[in-house]
Amino acid sequence: MTKPRVLSGIQPTNGSFQLGNYLGAVKQWVELQQSHDAFYCVVDLHALTSSPDPKELRKNTLTSVAQLLALGIDPEHCTLFLQSQVYEHNQLAWVMECLTGFGEASRMTQFKDKSQKVGNDRVVVGVFTYPMLMAADILLYQADQVPVGEDQRQHIELTRDLAARFNSQYGKTFTIPEGYILKAGAKIYDLQDPTSKMSKSAESMSGLIEILDTPESNTKKIKSAVTDTGREVRFDVAEKPGISNLLTIYSALSGKSISETEIEFDGKGYGDFKSAVAEVVVEYLRPVRLRTLELLDDPTHLSAILETGAQKAQAVASKTLAEVYERIGLISRA
Ligand code: TYM
């Protein structure tokens, strides 16, 4: 029986991933590569929307690949590749752009937020067309499921709409993908502002746990996480957003359930709990950091993995694109 297919992507915007990227997405990628036909890409083209310095982009892209491997992505069990190395992504993105309404794209919250933040004259068109490139990433591989965090839900909805629209206009071509979004962990919050998601674009880094940061720095950040008045370690998002966020993190990394954890810290207070969270996080990330640094020492090995990945990805992507071009009436080369 053929395995269901998953595809997902992650931006190489900054050197290190943050804990939300791991708990909301990459942790599931690692699990799904065993049971699914998995395609994972570092979406370097998407990162261009924030105009990175070329040297930094190259470095961050390789650091992203090394981190994925260190976190458990196994090229023997999945296809790991760079988006920019499989040209079909841009080609299908154009077709998607010609299928998307201007108003529809204008309603995407990510575009609205960014354009409001920097102003219409400064926001690049790539931020506007970003979701259509993401739709292309997914649809090229006929993915059944897309493991992502909660913040990507609207993009997956658009992808589904575009796939259905294409299918009804030109005949069944695309699999309609489903989001694979966890109930717990799909949104990890900022440690200093536990009602906003943990994100690299936060104004301050003090609420952000970076996978590659030092144990000392991460311990300090967790110990100074904002908590609520009271002493009780109890999961209650409305009343105790800070403690609930730490409980989610602790539970996901220790493998203990939230209710088990509540019992473990019954009567112990926030200080003890935060120390335990810090220890779990630091011990979990310690080998990941070391392994990432080791992998970065061997760029030839990373390139070889990416080359194999690009070839495997392109074999699938080119087939889908050829079918799309045929259906929409483009003439193939003789
Ligand atoms: P990106 O690079 O911002 O984030 C990568 C993944 O991490 C998840 N994530 C979180 N999950 C829980 N809590 C958080 N605080 C948190 N922050 C980030 C994101 O939901 C995401 O799953 N547009 C995508 C990249 C992309 C993509 C794709 C994803 C491009 N093409 C095709 C899936 C399929 C993005 O910017 O993710």
Ligands and ions found: tryptophanyl-5'AMP
**What gap, in angstroms, lies between the N and C termini?**
36 Å
Provide the structure class. Answer: mainly alpha
What does the radius of gyration come to?
21 Å
Helix content, binned percent: 40-55%
How would you summarize the topology of this molecule?
Layout: E1 5-10, H1 19-35, E2 37-42, H2 44-47, H3 54-70, E3 78-82, H4 88-97, H5 102-106, H6 109-118, H7 125-139, E4 145-147, H8 153-170, E5 178-180, H9 215-223, H10 241-254, H11 258-264, H12 270-296, H13 299-328
The protein binds tryptophanyl-5'AMP.
The site of tryptophanyl-5'AMP has 27 residues, from strand 1, helix 1 and helix 7.
Concise summary:
This protein is mainly α. It is built from 13 helices and five strands. The protein starts with a strand and ends in a 6-residue tail after the last helix.
